[in-house]
Design brief:
Elements: H1 2-29, H2 36-42, H3 48-90, H4 95-98, H5 113-120, H6 135-165, H7 172-181, H8 191-200, H9 207-215, H10 222-233, H11 237-245, H12 250-261, H13 263-279, H14 282-288, H15 295-301, H16 313-345
Helix pairs in contact: 1-3, 5-16, 6-10, 6-13, 9-14, 13-16
Length: 349
């Protein structure tokens, strides 16, 4: 299988490379249609059939290049999608079929009960399954942390972006530059210091404290502030001046004008923040322990085993499918909002 993938990749790359080289070579020889009669005179009577032959050859090469390009893209798409396909079909296999020496690329029989075992924890034959994996609680904890952290982060981001975009105060540009400089530091660099801080506050001893520690350290995102600030700066300043002449306060102008005009960017920030909360693992695993777990930590630490100690990989794959499904649906149905919000932000300012 690996040899087939490597050979196919090499062939596709060779086709694309050959097509590009030939297309560039022919491009240099191409005669503009508006000027081909003058060129024919200059080259002492180049015949029309020669021009037709060159044109046909160029057309054929363009078609070959397009075919090679699409073959390459399809091949790369298969490489990207194959792990998801394998995860899905593995979740529907029996344990014996999964452990077979010769893998099957389609289940011989669909075992939908693998998903049921994630919620009942006991199989029909009495084997105990995933005693430490409470999927409903993990989903609830993750959604709660994601929603609360997203709402609070949006408030902080909107106020900070508005201050940097519209308000005038000493040191504004220097402070904004300092904030941008922090983006060059990896987030993992602050893990230990954040842990020491929340420990000194006593936030890692109970569920409420752990919930607070999961939300508070990540309320400020310099990237989201920068993204929204660039969007705010694209809104004409004349609107702000007219609102101030009418006696409108800054908060009212922000709520009535700036936020509605920046809705695509705010939607993008909301989606990205929720996805970040759903995928977070290192920090929740460090401070949550067994007291308050998110879905990523619970999935990683769960032992999907029967009474004989055998790991039940199909049921584990079923859990991975359920954890991946929300983010996959978000990306499929809301990707246009993400791209629209990012593209509207621009680089002005």
């Amino acid at each position: 299988m690996i040899a087939f993938i490597v050979i196919s990749a090499v062939l596709c790359a060779a086709i694309v490379f050959y097509g590009v080289v030939v297309w560039i070579t022919e491009r240099k020889r191409e005669v503009p249609q508006d000027d081909w009669m003058g060129q024919a005179v200059a080259t002492k009577g180049m015949r029309a059939k020669d021009i037709d032959a060159v044109s046909k050859k160029q057309t054929v090469m363009k078609i070959l290049v397009q075919v090679g390009l699409y073959v390459f893209l399809v091949f790369m798409a298969i490489i990207v999608l194959f792990p998801f396909y394998w995860m899905l079909i593995s979740s529907l296999k029996s344990q014996s079929e999964y452990n077979a020496s010769i893998p099957t690329y389609w289940p011989k029989q669909f075992h939908w009960e693998n998903y049921k075992y994630l919620f009942v924890n006991v199989a029909e034959d009495g084997m105990f399954i995933a005693s430490d994996f409470d999927l409903k609680t993990l989903f609830l904890n993750t959604v709660l942390v994601g929603v609360v952290s997203t709402l609070l982060s949006l408030i902080v981001t909107v106020l900070a972006a508005y201050a940097f975009a519209r308000l005038e105060f000493k040191g504004k540009n220097a402070l904004f530059a300092a904030l941008l400089a922090t983006m060059m530091l990896p987030g993992e660099l602050f893990t230990i210091t954040n842990y020491v801080t929340v420990s000194s506050f006593g936030w890692i001893t109970d569920k409420v404290g752990i919930f607070t520690a999961l939300v508070v350290p990540f309320l400020v995102s310099v990237f989201y502030i920068y993204l929204l600030r660039q969007n705010f700066m694209q809104i004409p300043n004349e609107l702000y001046l007219a609102a101030k002449v009418d006696g409108t306060s800054d908060l009212k102008y922000l709520w009535k004008v700036m936020i509605p005009l920046s809705a695509p960017t705010l939607i993008s920030i909301t989606i990205l923040k929720m996805m970040g909360a759903w995928n977070s693992y290192i920090w929740p695993n460090l401070i949550g322990g067994n007291i308050f777990q998110l879905v990523t930590v619970g999935l990683r630490s769960a032992s999907f085993q029967n009474a004989a100690g055998e790991t039940l990989f199909p049921i584990q794959m079923a859990a991975v499918v359920l954890v991946t499904l929300p983010l996959l649906l978000v990306f499929i149905f809301l990707r246009k909002y993400i791209m629209r919000g990012v593209s509207r932000s621009g680089i002005k300012g």
